[in-house]
Structure formats: structure tokens, C-alpha cells
Amino acid sequence: MLILAIDTALDHCAAAVLDTDSAVMRAQETLPMKRGHAEALMPLVARVRQQSGIAFQELDRIVVTTGPGSFTGLRVGLSAARGIALAAHKPVVGVTTLSAYAAPVVSADGDAPVISAIDARHDHVYYQIVSGNGDELVAPKVAPIDDLLADARFAAPHLVGNAASMLAERWPAGATAPVAVDNQPGPDIAWVAWLGAAADPAHAPARPFYLRAPDVKPPAGAAPELAHTAASS
């Protein structure tokens, strides 16, 4: 299967082409940025596609991150993925940023629970907790950091996400310390691609995964699903 993966949900802009049959990443590129995703994404996708040697029509699936993350960034990635999928007559699937953060840790078959955490600002985080084998322990939610620390009653977790260092700095003194702290501006685009390849299109829609209302309002005329603010996948 040939996969084009796109991620603009957080503080980078990334794209990759994965060949799952040969387990080879044909091309990938990640640009750190807090703003400017709209201007950077399509030139980046064009470079990655050219480097991969794969035409859009040869792709089997488009994968895009659905959040939680920046409302503006998510809109850019989702719009691009849907546009490419429509033009190339290919299916498009979505994966959450929280699951993409956790994926490489879970794949290592460790015993420690994994806390994926994303800075939601105003002393809040988006987070999800899974076991070392990927079983969900705490469903995705948004909450004050102190609530997460109270919720994290699991010994020696592995912290990952752009809020991982923030959590480590405030980890309760009497609690067992995290086994690892992986602070990353965004998930590895390679794992976004692999998760998208494994996803069931019927259960992985390419629509925003919001855990609270966006901080900005969508422009007039935006697609209804892009203005949706319920916590649904």
C-alpha cells in the first residue's frame, strides 16, 4: 500500500510517502513552525511526492492528523488531504495526534503506561493514557494539568508529546518518576503514515477531533464539520 501522510496539527508541517509492502519510507520532510502551515504545506507535499517518485494517482490512501491541536493548523491539513484525495480519487483517513504520539512507544513493547499530552494552553492539556500494549486506560480528554497529575495514578509512566516536559517539571515529588520524557513539537510523520495504513476507513474519518471549542472562529462559509466542537472522532 502506498500512503501519503500529512500533519499540520501542531508546531510543525510534515508529509511523507510510505510503501507498506516494502516497509520503506519513500520520502518524508518535517518543517518546524508555529504559523504559516497554509503557505508551507502544498510546496512541501509537492517536494515529498517528487522525491518519492510516486504519482498521486498511484497512491492507495491519504492520511491526515485530526487533532487535538491548533484549529487553524488542523483546517489546513484536513482541507489539503481531502482535496488531494478528491482529485486523485483515493480514500482519506484520519488519525489523532495523541495516538500518533503514543504509537512508537507502544510499538517498543514496554511495560510502562504511556501518557500522550498536548499543551492546550491556559494551564490545560489534551491527554490520553494507554497501557504499554496500547490498551486505553484513560480516554482522550482536556483538563487542567493538576487534574492530569491526579489522574496519572499509574507507576512510572512514559511521557510523550509537546507537553511532556511541562508535566515532568510538575510531577508530584512523592510519586514514582516517569521512566522517560519525550518532548516533541509534533508526532513522527512516519508513525502517522503507519497508523493510517492500519486504520479502518469506516472508523477513521478525516474530520476534526476536538476536545473543546476552538480558540478562533472558523471563517464564514467554512464546512460545518470544521466548525464542529464536540469531542468526537
Automatic annotation (TrEMBL):
Residues 34-149 form the Gcp-like domain. InterPro entries: ATPase_NBD (IPR043129), Gcp-like_dom (IPR000905), T6A_TsaB (IPR022496). Transmembrane segments: none annotated. It comes from the Bacteria. This is tRNA (Adenosine(37)-N6)-threonylcarbamoyltransferase complex dimerization subunit type 1 TsaB. It comes from Bradyrhizobium denitrificans.
